[in-house]
Amino acid sequence: MNFQHLYGPIPSRRLGRSLGVSPIPLKTCNFSCVYCQLGRTVNMTNQRKEFFDLQDILGEFDFYIKNGVCKFDFVTIVGEGEPLLYSKIGELIKSIKAYIDKPVAVITNGALLSEEKVREELSESDLVMPTLDAYDQRTFKRINRPHKSISFDSYVNGLISFSKNFKGKIWMEFMMIKGLNDDEESLRKIKGLFNKINYDRLYINLPMRPPAEDWVKVPEKVRVELAQNILGGISLDFLAKEDFYSSIGDDFEAILSIIKRHPMNQYEIESFLNQRKCENKNVIFEKLGKDEKVEKVQYFGLNVYRLTSVRR
Ligand code: SF4
């Protein structure tokens, strides 16, 4: 079958193996972010619509699952534009969850969370990953270039309201751009807004892939470290990529054997466990938290695990 709405699964350091579902036509969005890797928005709209027949998308999903095309850890709804513009996203999420026992994530710019109906539709998802890059109307227009009907205040208030009631996890994303939002004053203003949102994690993204506007540049490393300190988030792009490996069969013992020589942060442990197809990552983290041999230290907003010096 030639899939039009499913892609992957792609390996993700955040989600493991992620099966993508796209219910939105290419570059149909209510933002036209200067850093967008898909280029400038072609269809600028804030009107929600069933762009593709829900049954067609579910039909592809049905085929994928019944034929066991490939194994995956997460289903991620991510448009080639803004997925909350899909008017049947609530039904899409419910149908996927009724079908398979896998978590469903939604990657969104978050602008439509200002609508109560949209917040309700997302309530069945397990993880929502919204973006917040700006700290006022001026920087919002400069960075995200939103549809004219979207104000910065309604956008931020929507994120705050959603975060107060949502039962799943929220992982915020912040795209950091040289000269636009990477100075200390901007970062402190953005931190003030993040403080009002109840989120579980914050990722600092960098425009590492070709952006819509060629003047968009990656901030210097020292600025990224400053952002990690101020925001308490983590930049995956600047993390050293380590391919940890252990021949020890037991996942917990394998981690102990590595951190004996090389401390690992939470993301490195997660990706190591994902590689090993570990199904009880939470249990491993709990064991690490309780084990007296293991020390958890904070470094640039990261939890780093190492063996305590007395036992080395
Ligand atoms: S919200 Fe996402 S898809 Fe839309 S312009 Fe921004 S980066 Fe591109």
Automatic annotation (TrEMBL):
SUPFAM superfamilies: Radical SAM enzymes. InterPro entries: Aldolase_TIM, GTPase_Obg, rSAM, rSAM_sf. The keyword Ligase does not apply. Transmembrane segments: none annotated. Its cofactor is [4Fe-4S] cluster. Residues 13-237 form the Radical SAM core domain. Keywords: 4Fe-4S, Iron, Iron-sulfur, Metal-binding, S-adenosyl-L-methionine. The keyword S-adenosyl-L-methionine applies. One of its GO terms (molecular function) is metal ion binding. This is Fe-S oxidoreductase.
